[in-house]
Amino acid sequence: MNVFEKEVQSQRNDAVDSAVGFIVSFGFFATIFIIATLIEFFGR
């Protein structure tokens, strides 16, 4: 058995971590898109 399998640092599920990462990155790009849309709308 691998030494890293014996001493696990995090017991959390990987699906939860990947879902949080996806939501954070999606929210970041959605915020940039909304800001760009508002600048284009009010810039006319």
Description of the molecule:
There is one protein chain. This protein is mainly α. The termini are far apart. The mean pLDDT is 89. The chain is built from 2 helices and no strands. It is rod-shaped, with a radius of gyration of 19 Å. It has a domain at 14-43. It has helices at 3-6, 14-42.
Secondary structure blueprint with pairings:
Layout (H helix, E strand, L loop, with lengths): L2 H4 L7 H29 L2
Report a brief summary of the structure.
Pfam families: YqzM (PF14141). With 44 residues, the protein is mainly α. It is 75% helix and 0% strand.
Number of helices: 2
* Shape verdict: rod-shaped
Strand content: under 5%
* Main beta sheet: none
- Cα Rg: 19 Å
Mean pLDDT over the full residue set: 89
List the main descriptive attributes of the protein structure presented here.
mainly alpha
